[in-house]
Design a protein that fits this description.
The chain has a single domain, classed as Sortase, Chain: A (Beta Barrel). The protein is globular. The protein is mostly beta strands. A hairpin with a 4-residue loop joins strand 1 and strand 2. Strands 1-2-3-4-7-8-6-5 form an eight-stranded mixed β-barrel. 11% of the residues lie in helices and 34% in strands. The longest helix is centred in the first third of the chain and has 17 residues.
């Protein structure tokens, strides 16, 4: 990514996470409307750049389809819809899982009246736990958890999550901590790196 597009990516991604995972069908993202230009925020799929279609995390019982997430009309990153059949979503402005850089997958911890979300147990992951992302082209990217952090949304570690890295990495993000009104105070962030035995 260029410096401009990376800054735009960080801005809109953080804005959506601060307001977009309360788990209610009437969630709005109007509280954060960054005015950014993002010419490469939703790049088209090109030959050699497959997309993730399934996420498996055996340690916490996750086996979910993965949808694509782009930008909402207000310029924030979309979040998966609140539905009975909750699933994770990959922000397609981030690298494809398995390619160099931090790939970002978001999911809900709760989905309103439907109950638990697909990432309800994300904070139970531990260092070394395995994550598999299956791509549309039939290949898979394998990762191992390096750390799990619960941070206040007001102190979201932007550089640590979205900064440049020299290897394929993965970020799984949801809400966590105590409830505050219609939302949650914190974000749970899983950091994972390409599995050394497979890359």
């Amino acid at each position: 990514m260029t410096h401009l597009s990376r800054r735009a990516f960080v801005t809109v991604a953080v804005a959506s996470l601060l307001v977009g995972c309360a788990g209610h069908s009437d969630d709005k993202t109007s509280a954060a409307r960054p005015h950014v230009t993002t010419p490469s925020a939703n790049p088209p799929t090109t030959p050699g750049r497959s997309v993730p279609v399934r996420l498996r995390i055996p340690g916490i019982g996750v086996d979910t389809p993965v949808m694509r997430l782009g930008l909402a009309q207000d310029g924030t990153v979309q979040v998966p819809p609140i539905t009975a059949h909750d699933q994770a979503g990959w922000y397609q402005g981030s690298p494809t899982p398995g390619r160099t850089g931090p790939s970002v997958i978001l999911g809900h911890v709760t989905v309103g009246a439907y109950g638990d979300g697909v990432f309800r147990r994300l904070d139970r992951l531990r260092r070394g736990d395995e994550i598999t992302v299956r791509l549309e082209n039939g290949t898979s990217a394998e990762f191992a958890v390096t750390s799990v952090r619960t941070v206040a949304k007001a102190e979201f570690p932007t550089k640590a999550v979205y900064g440049d890295v020299s290897r394929p990495e993965l970020r799984l993000i949801t809400c966590g901590g105590p409830r505050t009104g219609d939302g949650y105070r914190d974000n749970v962030i899983v950091f994972a790196a390409a599995h050394p035995a497979r890359h």
